[in-house]
Amino acid sequence: MKFKAKIVFLHTIAFLAFIFIVGCESNFRDVQKINFSEFSPSGEADSITLKYTDSGKIKAVLKGKKMLDYATVEYPFTEFPKGVDVTLYDGKGKRTFVTANHAMQFKGTEIIDLTGNVKIRTEDNQLLETEQLYYDQKNAWFFTEHKYKFTAPKGVSYGEGVDFDKDFKIMNTQKFSGQTEAKE
């Protein structure tokens, strides 16, 4: 009888240990799920070229080495973690070239955040350089509060804070200094 009681006792201990281990495994998986970030891209693409058209005319061409689409998060956005190369076209076919090391397009706001070695160049050799720049797609308008360098055929200027159209025809500067050629 003692032998049977000992076997029943060992089986009971083994069964309880099994339940405990299974219960801990389930609990461990729940803990892993808590730490799991649901902030992952719903779409991913490598070496992309996007063409934006309006009424059959190309308005912009965007090239990027990598695109991550976060369409399922609370505030959806598209990220270009390896940079972008954008060509903007006006109604007459005049081009403006934009490059940046990183870009994020926020859906619903039509704002693009360009960061890291941002450069905007026009066909007539005007160049603006900064570390961060925003682009309002709806109004075709750029703006930044960061320091910038603007190079034009007539001189170089520096400042902190500027907003302008893509052709540099209208520029509103905040803190500004520089040199320009004087007409005689």
In short:
InterPro entries: LipoPS_assembly_LptC-rel (IPR010664), LptC (IPR026265). This protein is an alpha+beta fold and 184 residues long. Helices cover 18% and strands 55% of the residues.
Order of helices and strands: HEEEEEEEEEEE
Helix content: 10-25%
Q: Any low-confidence stretches, pLDDT <50, length ≥5?
A: none
Largest sheet: 6 strands, antiparallel, barrel
**What does the overall shape look like?**
elongated
In percent terms, what proportion of residues is strand?
over 45%
Please tell me about this protein's structure:
- This is LPS export ABC transporter protein LptC.
- It comes from Flavobacterium arsenatis.
- By secondary structure, the chain is an alpha+beta fold.
- It has two domains: 1-36; 43-180, lipopolysaccharide transport protein A fold, CATH 2.60.450.10.
- It is 18% helix and 55% strand.
- It is built from one helix and eleven strands, in the order H-E-E-E-E-E-E-E-E-E-E-E.
- It has a six-stranded antiparallel barrel.
- The termini are far apart.
Notable traits:
lipopolysaccharide transport protein A fold; 184 residues; alpha+beta; 11 strands; 2 domains; 6-stranded antiparallel β-barrel
Q: Which secondary structure elements does this structure contain, and how are they paired or packed?
A:
Elements lengths: L1 H34 L7 E12 L2 E14 L6 E4 L3 E6 L5 E6 L1 E5 L4 E12 L4 E10 L4 E12 L2 E11 L5 E10 L4
Antiparallel strand pairs: 1-2, 2-3, 2-4, 3-6, 4-5, 5-7, 6-7, 7-8, 8-9, 9-10, 10-11
